[in-house]
Amino acid sequence: MIEKEVTLQRLKDAVSDPGTKQIELVYIETRTALSRFAENVIHQNIEQADHRVMARVSLGDRVGLAVGNNIEPEPIKATIENATEIAENQDPDPDFPGFVKSTTGADVVGAYFDTTAEFSAVSRAMAIKSAADACKKERLSAAGLYKTETKASAVVNSRGTTQFFAETLAEFSLTASDDSTSASGWAIAYNRDVNKLDLLRLVRTAVGKGVLSRNPETYPAGEYTVILEPAAVGQLLLFLGFLGFSGKSFAGSRGFMAGKIGEKITGSEITITEDPFTGEMAGMPFDYEGVPKKRVVLIENGIARAVVFDRRYAKKAGTESTGHALPPDNAYGPYPKNMTLQPGSVPFENLVSSTEEGILITHFWYLNFLNPRRVQVTGTTRDSTFLIKNGKIDRPIKNMRATPAILEAFTKVEGIAKERVLYPQYTSVMFVPGMKLAGFPLSEDTDEG
Q1: What share of the chain is helix, strand, coil (3-state, %, to 5)?
Q2: How far is CA 105 from CA 24, 292, 311, in A?
Q3: CATH number for domain 4-206, candidates 3.30.2290.10, 3.90.550.10, 3.30.930.10, 1.20.1250.20
Q4: Is the dihedral angle over the CA atoms 350, 352, 355, 356 positive or is it negative?
Q5: How buried is residue 218: exposed, middle or buried, by Cβ count under 10 Å (0-12/13-18/19+)?
Q6: How far apart are CA 246 and CA 338, in angstroms?
Q7: Strands 222-228 and 272-274
């Protein structure tokens, strides 16, 4: 059980008498339960609990960081002493912004569910069996994972900041494949309430694509009209976060947003917002410096508007934090973790039915930087790629290598679906629709297999 009052009291007691130093404590508790399966059989069951206490101590502009894993009073005290000793041996940091007394983060409804926190291994196994049975009926093999997680985050400092947030999440991913025919169908579901995962739809989608994708054909390289399913859109959006929406890359003039605020950088159809408060997202309302998060419009109707900041990079840029600091032991700087893409007005099926000739992409695999200055990435399509002709799926094609310059691709929008789904990747969650793009570069994947 997450014990909010006990946790906060111990943290507050630990910083109550800082003396000549300032102290910040960040506490993260996670309890993860997951089942992995392959070839229609569960091969790994894990339930683990972990917690970290990160202490930052400032002696003026000399700062020390130490990490412990015990919430009892004496171990917390020892972690603070370790951070103090480290601070004493540090060079001054002129960019250290100090700690801040923050107001309490906004109330967030729908972030924590007992149904998810108490979900059992037996329940996971029953759902996996149903998915495996559906795959076996079509001579497909089921692989994937079913995960639930409970997490608590707290930030307390000697300036008077006290923040606490508890959350749950549930995620199920399924790949339905047949190696003998190169078939592969995939789907993913995510929600904070495990009971809201639509597993029947997920299984139908993955199995249906697995059946349709048998014996794919090679397709020639070219620039094609593509219909991206939401997961593919989310994967591209994630790279925009990496490559430009961070205050660190902005302050260092390395990201694509640097020098572009107020300029048009995508098509007018594109509006991207960092918004942890949208009902479907229910994100943490403060960051790991205890600063309340703000909703930030990153791109509005194609125009670059803003990036997200923590206190360090806000100081460098001469502005205020937007509440996007990561835990103090990170090296990445501020980062948007709850991005949303504004939907369009047509059903996703219309994106397909309105396409005379194009390619339907389920998601991408192993996306990586190719040319950061052009915001260009490379990766392959994955788990069902289909040729569309006259508004219908014509036949499956083999995975192709994609090399899009993302901002350029987002200037060629031919449609955005009105439906949006939550798509998780790494520690981010995005709320995204499907999209139709023209002139998308694809080539034969010579590394396939």
Answers
A1: 25, 40, 35
A2: 17, 5, 16
A3: 3.30.2290.10
A4: negative
A5: exposed
A6: 13
A7: unpaired
For residue 103, what are the contacts with CB-CB under 8 A and spacing of at least 6? 292
Residues in contact with 380: Cβ distance below 8 Å, sequence separation at least 6, in sequence order: 364, 365, 366, 399, 400, 401, 402, 445, 447, 448
Residue entry with tokens 């350029």:
408
Separation between Cα atoms, residue 381 and residue 397, nearest integer Å: 10
The secondary structure of residue 351, as a DSSP letter, is: H
Sheet strands (E) in 11-40 = 22-38
Give the predicted TM-score (pTM) of the model.
0.95
Let me know: does 302 contact 236? Beta carbons within 8 Å.
Answer: no
Please give the residue that has the higher pLDDT: either 332 or 360.
360
Given the structure tokens 């130093």, which residue do they identify? 21
Q: Give CA–CA dist 142/43, Å, rounded.
A: 12
Q: What is the pLDDT of residues 71-120, one digit of tens each?
A: 999 999 999 999 999 999 999 999 999 999 999 988 899 999 999 999 99
Two tokens, residue 384: 């069902």
C-alpha to C-alpha distances, 192 to 25, 153, 277, nearest whole angstrom: 26, 16, 14
Helices of type H across 138-213: 199-212
Pinpoint the residues of the chain covered by CATH 3.30.2290.10. 4-206
Contact call for residues 289 and 14 (beta carbons, < 8 A):
no
